[in-house]
Amino acid sequence: MDIEGKDTWKYANAGADTVAISSSVKFAVIKRVEREITIDEICARYFEDIDIVLADGFTLSDKPRIIVADSSEDIESFKRGCEVLAVVGNGFGLDEVEGIVGKIRLKVMG
Amino acid sequence: MDIEGKDTWKYANAGADTVAISSSVKFAVIKRVEREITIDEICARYFEDIDIVLADGFTLSDKPRIIVADSSEDIESFKRGCEVLAVVGNGFGLDEVEGIVGKIRLKVMG
After folding, report:
1. How far does the CA of residue B82 sit from the closest CA of chain A (Å)?
2. Which of B16, B20, B46 sits opposite A18 (nearest CB)?
């Protein structure tokens, strides 16, 4: 929908602050914002029906994290005092999906 | 974001029910849905900070409408008992933007 020439793109380009498109299987919305929305706001407003949210980025958040790094300096700098569920690269391998999922499952379901 | 190969596309393709992307100027979310969301739900949830929502489609809604048609049969069939703000094609011309905007403004601001 964010593609030049599409109706939704035309509406956004014409100045619409929010553009949405809706069907029986998919709903999408694009909003102009004046500041980056926090991860808590995003989860509360858009993921309230979702059990597990995986976020990429949001390095300043205080959420439990999965760190992808192989040096202990990088691991420490990405940790930023947060709970670490798993370290990938130095610990889990990049393809150890089951093991990483197990850590997420343990965190969420206990 | 709905483009093959993009990270957001990969997440949706991997089975995520909701995918979002966030920056300091734009926020976008794509949700899988099990039925088409009504226009009232869309407005309440995603356009609550917006003064005027123009919707294309939603022919079964009961909202005031702008009809684009040139025959009186088409006008009547698109009207479906709703309030009509303007008829474009048979009344306003396609390029009479100011006049059509005037009708919207009158409806919203009185």
Report:
1. 22
2. B46
- Find chain B residues with C-beta within 8 A of A28's C-beta: 2, 28-31
The reply to whether B39 falls in a domain is no
Residue B74 lies in domain: 51-109
Question: pTM value?
Answer: 0.84
Residue B67: inside a domain: yes
**What is the tens place of the pLDDT at every residue in B7-37?**
888 888 899 999 999 999 999 999 999 999 9
- E-strand ranges in chain B read 18-22, 26-32, 65-68, 84-88
Of B20, B26, B36, nearest to A24 by CB-CB distance is B36
CB distance B77 to B60 below 8 Å: no
- ipTM rounded to 2 decimals: 0.87
Q: Is B83 left (phi over 0), alpha (psi -120 to 50) or beta?
A: beta
- Number of structural domains (chain B) is 1
